[in-house]
Amino acid sequence: MKYLVLLGFGVGAVLVYLLSSASANTELFARNFPYLLAVTGALVAALLVLVGYQVVQLRRKIKHGVFGAKLTVRLMLVFGLMALLPGAVVYGVSVQFLSKSIESWFDVRVDNALGSGLNLGQAVLDNLQRELTKKAESMALALADQPPAAHIHLLNNLREQSGVQEATLFSERGKIIAFAGNERAGMLPMIPGNTILWQVRQQQPYSRIESIPNRGLFVRVVVPVNLLSFTENIRVLQLMQPVPPKLAEDAEAVRTAYQDYQELSLSRLGLKRLYGLTLTLAMLLALLATVALAFLISEQMAAPLRALAKGTRAVAKGDFTQMHPVHSRDELGILTQSFNRMTRQLAEARNAAEVSREQIEKSHAYLENILANLTSGVVAFDEQLQVRSINPLAEQILDVTTGTLRGVQLYQWGSRTPALAEFAGAIAAQFKLHGDVSWRQQIEYGADGNKRTLLAHGTHLPSGVDNGYVLVFDDITHLIKAQRDAAWGEVARRLAHEIKNPLTPIQLSAERIQHKFAAKLAPADAETLTRSTQTIVNQVSAMKEMVNAFAEYARTPAVQLEAIELNALVREVLSLYEPAPGMTLDLATDLPQVSGDRKLLRQVIHNLLQNAQDALADSPEPHIVLSTAQTESGVQLTIMDNGPGFPPALMERLFEPYATTKPKGTGLGLAIVKKIIEEHHGMIRIENIRPHGASVHIRLPVAAVMEANV
């Protein structure tokens, strides 16, 4: 397209030049002008087709939304108007000037002047003809008076007297009789034709202005020479006199100009149309070539803008690799350089941001990993006490599902999870009370029967870092229970030590008193003594049992671990309770062996069954279910009854000494059971069953897993 437009532009310029040259050169105009017009018309048609194709392409680009198409249209219109307006003015002026000029060529005064000049020249030539004719007639008379033999000598004298350049005497048949001429005369005279000879024989002189090749314009006069002798035929005298060169040149110029003027006068309308067509074709050539060139220039101007638009769209999509070559040093080139610099800086900034983001993600992941593996719950708040982040352990301690509290204000925790209302209120009160000062508080959390003791620590983040609050809390329920267990163990040890020692002497003293004085007293007194001493002995025995129970609780059991079939152990313990009405077994098959001490686990099962039977003492339809099952974390033993269950107020202290619902007993059974299960690295959990009943769940590790951990 580019080379085609440039070729058309160049050919059009050459044709316009040739048309103008042909107009100035008559011969070239007459010979080649029609061909030039045909070629120019063909080029105009070709340019018209080219412009039409460009317009169709431009319309298609506009329809498809190609960037820069509208700019191309605008530039084409601007360039077209820039070429059309001056061209139209020049075209109009040229047509008017041409019309006026052609009309001025054929003005009446010019016509008269040319006619007068032509007549003047013709008159001068006619005068030369007449003078030479007179000289010829005078010489013919002189020759006629002399005999033919004297004509040769007389001819030269007559020529010299008359001042004629060349004189020739012919016979009536045109044979040369005598020739006379000066130094400018030719070597041979011009022979008159038969027509001239016939005219002269008819006694009619011949006079003409003739052009002789290579010699110029001559006046030729041929007259008859009538001899006096009847025996001789007439002779013919021819005189040749050159026309003066200046006069011949002027006469020829006037004649040629008049002839050309007459020809132009005949083709005046054709000239107008021809020159008008020439101007129109030149105008169309210039306009179409300008429009085609404008399309090409606008395409070249729009190409960098189109590339920049494409690059801008790529940048908007996040592609910063767009780099466009700079082909010029103008404003578009500077704009392209600026765009390349911008994309390079954006790419560098994105790479830096990506590196920073990766570092932040790594730091965040590192922080999340630390928070996830902390043994404390951590909650971060903003200034409005809205949760920014919370670690998994905090959600686990608060017993909420993942993501429940994220983005929720502390005051709204109760609406999301009612169990958190009291805890959230206590935390909010501490933050409000202490403000920017750090605080530490032990807070109870949870419903009755499942209360937890949390040690919470809150602080306000420093200004300039990230305004907000941080709450850190630990579940110290097990720690407090361990402290209580340790305290009870110490109490039990001291009680066992302090009480057990005097019990034996008391019992021995009571038995000795009975043995020594029973026989010496009256029967009634002896009976009283016996009853009293027996009471002392029985109470001492009860106290010994209690002291032994305390001692057993205080003493850390020596666990002898081995692989045990739990189902077989359950059946072995149940054999002691046969017959056992209301007792059901639901033992899982293919149960893996557990790691435990057979004697201690037997004591655990026995204590739990005894507690269940005691709870069902007043039940009309006692029912106990023993079941085993395999879980993800080990093997579970469940003992469930349909008794009254445990009082809610006692649920938190079931595993503490003296925590019992029995009218008699020390309340050490569940405490000892819990201690034995913990020594087995297991877990015990007690819950009430609605509408009535209780269940005890014991989880023991699998033997293979326990050995691997050891």
From TrEMBL:
Residue span, Histidine kinase domain: 494-704
Compartments reported by the entry: Cell membrane
Xref: SMART domains: HAMP, HATPase_c, HisKA
Highest taxon, organism lineage: Bacteria
Keyword set, alphabetical order: ATP-binding, Cell membrane, Kinase, Membrane, Nucleotide-binding, Phosphoprotein, Transferase, Transmembrane, Transmembrane helix, Two-component regulatory system
One GO BP annotation of this record: osmosensory signaling via phosphorelay pathway
Catalysed reaction equations from the record: ATP + protein L-histidine = ADP + protein N-phospho-L-histidine
Entry's transmembrane regions: 34-56, 77-98, 274-297
Known EC number: 2.7.13.3
Tagged with keyword Transcription regulation: no
Alphabetized InterPro entries for the sequence: BphY/WalK/GraS-like (IPR050351), HAMP_dom (IPR003660), HATPase_C_sf (IPR036890), HATPase_dom (IPR003594), His_kinase_dom (IPR005467), HisK_dim/P_dom (IPR003661), HisK_dim/P_sf (IPR036097), NtrY (IPR017232)
HAMP domain boundaries: 299-351
MF terms (GO), sorted A to Z: ATP binding; phosphorelay response regulator activity; phosphorelay sensor kinase activity; protein kinase activator activity
Membrane topology: Multi-pass membrane protein
Top-level EC class: transferase
GO CC terms in record: plasma membrane
PANTHER family named in the record: SENSOR HISTIDINE KINASE GLRK (PTHR42878:SF7), TWO-COMPONENT HISTIDINE KINASE (PTHR42878)
Protein name, entry field: histidine kinase
Species annotation: Sulfuriferula plumbiphila
